[in-house]
What we know:
Shape: elongated
Order of helices and strands: EEEE
Largest sheet: 2 strands, antiparallel
Helix content: under 10%
Strand content: 5-15%
Number of helices: 0
Strand order of the largest sheet: 1-2
Amino acid sequence: TPVTGTATILDDGSGPGSNPDDDRPAVTMSDAGTVNEGETANFKVTLSNASESTVQVELGLNLGDTETGDLGTLEYNTGSGWVTV
């Protein structure tokens, strides 16, 4: 079953000053593909371009037949290494 994600970016493009920074980033998330029981599902979340402001991504899970103990660690790459959330 394909996996889908939804992101909300709170940016109306009207930054401060007379020349606002209107390069609103977009968040995309890859499909984990087929994952068998006991395997790790990896999703790649990408920001289209850098932002001078903090970008917040809220992730949610539909557990289905999954239990809390089945879930692993969420990590992100800072560009110089992986950081555990």
